[in-house]
Amino acid sequence: MSKQQETALLVPGPRGWEIWKQAATGGFVQQSADGPARASDLGGLPGGNLTMLFPVRGMHALPFKAASTDDSLFEDLAAMHAERLGVRADPMAGQLTDTFVVGKEEESATLLCVVLKSPGDGDLPPRSPKEFDISPRAYQVQGEAVAAWKEFERWVFAFYRNGKLLYSQATSSSGPSPDASCLREIQLALSQLAIQGLALRPEVVHVWSADGDAGSLASGLGVPARLSPRPDPVLPEPRSKLLPADVRAARRAQRERQQKIAIAAVMAIAYLGMAGWFGYGLWKDKNGIAKLKAEADGILPAADRVAYEEHKAKWAELDLMVDIEKAPVELMSRVAKAIPPNTGLRLKTAEINAGQIKLVGEAPQAAPISQLSVNLGRDSFGLSQYQWDNASPTNSNKGWSFVITGATEDAESP
Fold first, then answer.
1. Residue 315 confidence (pLDDT) above 80
2. Is the model's pTM score more than 0.90?
3. Residue whose C-alpha is closest to residue 101's, from 72, 130, 139
């Protein structure tokens, strides 16, 4: 039986990324702290499975009460709730949404819809994690409580109901202790949840800080405040379905490499098998050595040529799968990264053929369209091998629409 791979956690810490390694007892022990603020700058990642916990600042937490207890409806209800609040996940950036059950009543359920912000440059580690989750779900809390701690020099807080995450938010406070501004943001969040019928009655306020104090939270919320170090993280349950697009592309490339290795192995085994068969025949029938050698010399070259041409033709059919520079999903991932963030620009359709890309979209202003055209031609976005033809955007009462086409030099004319 093969040994099960250990899991390591990437955890957002008070000043930078932390690496936690699985111990023999099943828990996690800290391997390094105060790492870089950019996940792409992390070094010394341990082997085995890697799980990344997104920081609170990198997500939207959207709790709501659903008028159903049917699990099959939860994802659709969460999508409609996020749409009503104007929060949309980038469809080109992978699986950025997930829904968690906080509690169920007789005819309703309390749900938490989580929407990740599209990861930008430097937001993902150099080695692709196997799983993703959010940091507030990795800390064990009992009952109904408020917890506050620091991530990347900023205070964040989370609300827990029956030990399950109900809401989380990053604040603008960066002092050594939670200040009045942090307290106001917590009180405002509690009021907004009460308006939605999700009133929280915290029994305690946890302030997780190794060198500070409870600050304004000690008396501001009217419940006891407990100062303690942040709990050791655990693997959240149930596991999330979050999977950013960059990692999907990396996993696809890994599968393609494994396919290449498998094809090479099959060819090697076939060759060795053929050589073994002929060798056995030569050993068994010494008197026919000359005849068998003549037959082998006449048969093998033609067979090799036919097999090679068949293999080359099949490999050409898989070109869009095995060449990362031509794979449609990889190209769309690069296009998505070139879209200026937080501008309202969105793609309506995207057509990808051999050596050709056609993008049709719209934006509330013309400037993001021009910026997208500039980004597509930059080497850093991996699309500079295309010659981009940017038609002038069209203005209407709904905004600006555009069509951008790109083609490589060897692309066939449509």
1. no
2. no
3. 72
